[in-house]
Amino acid sequence: MADPQPVVPSRIPRSGRKPGDRRVTVDRPEARFFRYGEQGTIVAKVAAIEPDSRAGRLGFGARRVLFGRVLSTHEEMEQRLPKWKALPIFSSDVMSSVAYASEASMFTLAAAGSVAYGLLMPISILIVALLILVTFSYRQTIRAYPNGGGSYIVARANLGVLPGLIAAASLLVDYVLTVAVSVSSGVYNLSAAVPILDEFKLEVPLIVICILLVMTVNLRGLKESGSLFAAPTYIFLGSMLLVIGIGVVRTALGNAPVAPPTTPFPAALEGMSLLLVMRAFADGCSAMTGTEAVANGVPAFKPPEWKNAQMTMVIMSALLGSMFLGMSWLVGVTGAVPSATGDSILSQIGAAVYDGRTPLYYILMFSTMGVLILAAQTSFADFPRLASILAKDGFFPRQFAFRGERLAFSSGIVALAIVSIVLVVAFGGDVNRLIPLYAIGVFTSFTLSQSGMVRHWWTERGPGWRRSAVINGVGAMVTAVVVVIFAIAKFALGAWIVLIIVPVMVVGMLLIGREYRSAQVELHVRPESVIGPPSRGQRVIVPMQDMRRDAIQAIKLGLTMSKSVVAVHVTDDLHAAEQFRARFEEQVRGVDLVIVESPYREFVRPLIRYLEFTAEKDPSVVTIVLIPERIIKHWWERFLYNQSAYRLRDALTGHPGIIVADVPFRRPR
Amino acid sequence: MADPQPVVPSRIPRSGRKPGDRRVTVDRPEARFFRYGEQGTIVAKVAAIEPDSRAGRLGFGARRVLFGRVLSTHEEMEQRLPKWKALPIFSSDVMSSVAYASEASMFTLAAAGSVAYGLLMPISILIVALLILVTFSYRQTIRAYPNGGGSYIVARANLGVLPGLIAAASLLVDYVLTVAVSVSSGVYNLSAAVPILDEFKLEVPLIVICILLVMTVNLRGLKESGSLFAAPTYIFLGSMLLVIGIGVVRTALGNAPVAPPTTPFPAALEGMSLLLVMRAFADGCSAMTGTEAVANGVPAFKPPEWKNAQMTMVIMSALLGSMFLGMSWLVGVTGAVPSATGDSILSQIGAAVYDGRTPLYYILMFSTMGVLILAAQTSFADFPRLASILAKDGFFPRQFAFRGERLAFSSGIVALAIVSIVLVVAFGGDVNRLIPLYAIGVFTSFTLSQSGMVRHWWTERGPGWRRSAVINGVGAMVTAVVVVIFAIAKFALGAWIVLIIVPVMVVGMLLIGREYRSAQVELHVRPESVIGPPSRGQRVIVPMQDMRRDAIQAIKLGLTMSKSVVAVHVTDDLHAAEQFRARFEEQVRGVDLVIVESPYREFVRPLIRYLEFTAEKDPSVVTIVLIPERIIKHWWERFLYNQSAYRLRDALTGHPGIIVADVPFRRPR
Predict the structure, then answer these.
(1) Percentage of residues of chain A with pLDDT beyond 90
(2) Using an 8 Å Cβ cutoff, are A511 and A180 in contact?
(3) Which ranges of chain B have pLDDT less than 50?
(4) How far is CA B225 from CA A180, A639, B121, B307, in A?
(5) What are the structural domains, with CATH classification, of chain B?
(6) Taking a C-beta distance cutoff of 8 angstroms, is the pair A352, A258 a contact?
(7) Which residue of B8, B21, B24 to mutate against A (max A Cβ within 10 Å)?
(8) Which of B523, B626, B649 lies nearest to residue A630, judging by beta carbons?
(9) Apex CA B535: angle with CA B533 and CA B538, to 5°?
(10) Model-level pTM greater than 0.90?
(11) Closest approach of chain A CAs to the CA of B628, in angstroms?
């Protein structure tokens, strides 16, 4: 049926016209643009979405080069993630934390003197325990919500809209911070190795470029991100496991690696305190964002989705746990300490294990930088997805729910990139000040999510619900304690800002929700109403300031709608109006002309009064006002033509008994 | 016929409805809003232009308090100016120049030593001679162009569009400068007398307030400006004539007034030169703007307009000439010299004639300040009028041609105030730097106007045309020489800026003119074409994304236009589309539904392709696309709803065989 047809150079496709074919429902669409689908529908081909204009084509072509061909909705399944691609996408944030978490804890502990470094191992064990608990809690959540079980969904379903939005807002803030902080720290690590970057102050531009790169790759689709970002992540993973493995073996063989001597970082001594230990703990566990991202991203996995997601999460936690403990253990063995010369703990350990700066050492260091930059990937995987879920529920602008040309949630990806770039530029790349804000959101959402799950099990009471409820209950309590610890430890350092931003965002989302609901109410069609042929008589009125083609077009249209068409001419110059009337009567047949003199030279308002009056006069007849409007081509033409069409339309729309239609005119092309 | 009716509190007027009255042409409009006019028209009463909304009413009421009641076009004649009001309006600029012109010349001459002051009288005589020449030339122009004979009109009619626009642009620039410079110098004179103004840096705010005051008075109408500004102008006139009169009488009686001793202004000696004399001459004759204003403003006079305008101009010139010569003569008699202490020449003469700072002296000084501020009035009288003439000819945005609520050209008045305020604020009130730019425009336009008149007489060759042509010819030559003198004397001081601004304005006006002409061509209706009942069949297509009231309204409208109405639903979710189809078929009767699947998730472009194809398929049938559009209430809602209605409308308007109509929807009020 859809016979292939040569590409026609003319802008408008030639059609396979048949003489006498007057059926209106088109059942033979142009083969270049459409084909037949199932169930009696027609299906648009790619050609149907290609733009016409030269600029449009250029943009379309450029996007194809940058992002690849347009993907059909039906190809969604092929874009799903296998576990080996899902792991780097969702774990990049977690992995990267290994590179700095121990060091951050030690910097904090340094304040209590080097003896406090002995606390590193216990704190690490505590963090890994927390990780295991969170992992088990989320495994359950994924099982219970196989279509995506992020905190927002779980909290909303079980606790209500407000907790749901609080979880969502906390996470969104956190994702933005993750991008800004992780890419910045990666680039600053690099600039410590490549001094020319610092010399020419290229860090901020480079951060922006890195964010744009990650954005571009994500706009190509999650699957491609997985392919591209797998290599650096797995190299880092391998390097880390190798360092730990060699370290263990060397220690077992009695040749324990020893860190090269360094000047210890001179810390302001403040003595051991609970607050200090809490801060060290908080510093250490600030990167569990990946867990949440996997839970939200279940639908991105290949089927069986929930099983693959569970498995990915367990692998991720196991890797993180072993690397974290291994690192902390190696710190103790090698005697690495925070250095005043900027030599990082990881660098000291690497040099110790590999006996100096060997090629393997450099692989370790550069893959670490790569992973720090890629940590942003987890945010890019989950922020757009969370935004799309919020948009579908009407709490976020609708376009965040649409999948772009490559089936990615493009609006969310671009929004995340823009906001984090603005943040980086506003802080001039000095994002250390943002770190205290960071991670409090994730744990808030953990708590809300786990509490929601407890409620869920309590309501469902399926087999084994008690055990599940206990796991999630403990998870909720522990993460709640962590939130309190974070809040106490970091409030003064800036965490209070989150207490302002999150409520503002929640209120914003509630307002958006209200707006969408009110639009829905306004546009609601009762299911029992039946729309049939017109039952009331109608008259058409065309405001007409001059004998112009836009007005003539509106009059012609009016003549197809009613026998009673009236042109209304408002004027302050009766002499000119009479000349107009003479011309009108000669050129326009079957249309009455009413001249309204407006001696106060205001044209729109008397016209509105006249139309209101006409509509009121005979409510059994619908008054249709056809407003002629010439389309302007450039914004500056607004200053040359007064926008009375717009004012008329605005004043008359929604008036009982009046239907307004704007009839735009443009010279035929 | 228009029976008086009590004011109805409801927003929409109750009408005198008659049962069975189904005539569509309304011939019994609401008496509160309309009455019958002549020639079968209806006439809007003031009530018809009063706004509905609370904010609108408040604004309307505030404007009534500030500007007075709304004036009808028919009251225009009552707003005409008698000569005694026209004189202060048009002469304020000229009069004020007496207060500073002699002093400005003397400051320049001072550079050549005090002996050069002897040149003051010859220069003054030269200036007065120029004034007489210009007056005579313009008397002729007014006679020849009784509907307004400003430089633009005369140059355009006789020399062409470009010379006309050059004259217009030069004048517009000059008017803006006049307002900024004159009000500023008035206020700085005042602040010299009232030191508290300078102490608290109140000059710039005071300048802005004065400009806004003159603007407000002008928005009330020219006649009211005349009434209000007559008193200070006539007091100044009286004071000046009194000073000169007493001075003459005292000198005749042998008791010549002598200026109090002062420290002469220490001038940088540069020796006598032609350039110096030229500069002194230019300084002295920088205020003939009034002549042009009278010529443009002829239609503002009471009939016989041209006679009254001529008479006003002659009186003005006579007064200016005698005051100017009188002042220069008194300078010589009293020995007043530019002072280092800031005591102005006028102040020295006043003190000399009145024997010290008597009450009459203070009247002279304060009325001088008042007149300096009022000098802006001449610009406010002519700038808006010139702009309205340009707008009528299509070289200025159209709204400048409309008379406001008080029959004044409100847009021009407000524009002049805004631009001059911006200038004052940008220069921080230090407008001395603007003075060199000043007056070159007036003389350029004089030259163009006089040259145009020569051409006019040459073409007309009426009785006495030779004499007239000689007068205007001499006028043209002399003013051309003055322009050259100005340009040479002041080029380096900044007059070159005018050489940039004027061409830019001319190009801008030409572009505006082109835009208006192209719109006219686009909308031109051939006079021989006759519009009758519809000749082609038509189908209606309604894009419909959901079962919503806006789409239902469009479908209902479509059903009144054609038996063939098709709703088109573009979707990427066939499952949802089938649900939609089921609901549609149940609720909407007599309308076909076409489902277009767009697997690439772009909705607008496939719809456009489909509509293009439908229109192409059967050119004998007109395709009417009714686009439903919910009207948004706030600007920020743009971010919540995508503007596909707008994109559709833009893509389809002007397409052969397709008529687009936007059907806005708002919940009935």
Answers:
(1) 29
(2) no
(3) 1-27
(4) 63, 29, 35, 22
(5) 80-518 (1.20.1740.10), 537-665 (3.40.50.620)
(6) yes
(7) B24
(8) B523
(9) 110
(10) no
(11) 9
